Amino acid sequence: EVQLVESGGGLVQPGRSLRLSCAASGFTFDDYAMHWVRQAPGKGLEWVSSISWNSESIGYADSVKGRFTISRDNAKTSLYLQMNSLRAEDTALYYCAKDYTAVPRGADYWGQGTLVTVSS
Amino acid sequence: DIQMTQSPSSLSASVGDRVTITCRASQSISRYLNWYQQKPGKAPKLLIYAASSLQSGVPSRFSGSGSGTDFTLTISSLQPEDFATYYCQQSYSSPPELTFGGGTKVEIK
Q: Which residues contact A56 (CB under 8 A, 6 or more apart)?
C-alpha cells in the first residue's frame, strides 16, 4: 500500500524558514517523480514544485521560485521542501504526491498534508 | 507560463444527470492533461490522466476527451458520491510546470 506521510508544518513568522518532509513507502520510490502541491484555506489547488526520479528535472511555481527548494533522498525514500523567506500568502495545507511516471506528469497518490501557517 | 481555465466554476445538477466540465489551456498542451476530484477535507484523487485514460479503480461513468487546448471531463450519470470539486492540471511544460485550473464545484440541485 502506497503511503505518503508529510511532516514539518507549523506556525512560523514571516521571513523565517521551514523544512517539510515526506516519508514514502509501499512503492519503489526511485522509479517515480514526486510533487508538492498546496491549498490555502478555502481555495483551490496550487502546484508548488516537482522533481523527477533522478532529481535532474525540477520545476517551481513562479510564486515560490527563488525561495523554495525541492529535493529527494532515494536511499531514505523521502521528499523534502525547504521553504525560505516565508510570506503570509504561503499559508496553506501542503500535500506531498507521487507521480505515475518517472518524470513529472501528474499525481496518482497523495498524502494527507501538513499545515503551514505564516503569521506574526 | 501556461494558464488553465475551467468552466463553469460551479454547477448544480441532479443524480442521474450528465455533467460536462471544460478546461482550456492558454497554448497547446497536446494530451498532457489530468483530471482530479476533491471532496471536502480530503486529498485530491486522480480520475483521468493523459486526457482520456481512466485511472485504475475509477468508475467508467467518468470520461475525458480533448487535445491541444480544449478538454472535457464528462460524468455520464451523476451519482451521490460525485458531488465534489474537480480540477484539471496540465503537465506539458519543461522544466516541469503542472498548473491547475481553478476548479469546478459540482453541487446538488
A: none
